[in-house]
Design a protein that fits this description.
With 87 residues, the chain is mainly β. It has no helices and eight strands. A hairpin with a 2-residue loop joins strand 4 and strand 5.
Length: 87
């Protein structure tokens, strides 16, 4: 419900019930050894923090897109690097 990571693509809040307008999670691990934290307020994702444990490219469905999440972001990161995405 909070994070989906398979087939090489990560999705943030992929199956959150509509009644969960305010929710967050911290340091969930994805395929490829990325640690992801995210916050959702008033029904919208407000920020995502990604930390690369070993480096590589994270393919992430854009958590801020208004088009039902069809845009894929490719974020290249080095080991130990942190990336912050905000709305």
């Amino acid at each position: 419900m909070l994070l989906q990571s398979h087939t090489g693509i990560v999705r943030i809040f992929p199956a959150i019930p509509g009644s969960w307008e305010n929710v967050s999670f911290r340091t969930l691990r994805t395929e490829g050894a990325f640690l992801v934290s995210a916050t959702r307020k008033n029904g919208n994702c407000t920020h995502v923090i990604i930390r690369a444990e070993k480096g590589g490219t994270l393919r992430l469905v854009d958590p801020f897109a208004d088009d039902s999440g069809q845009r894929i972001l490719e974020i290249k990161m080095e080991a130990g690097e942190t990336s912050v995405l905000k709305r």
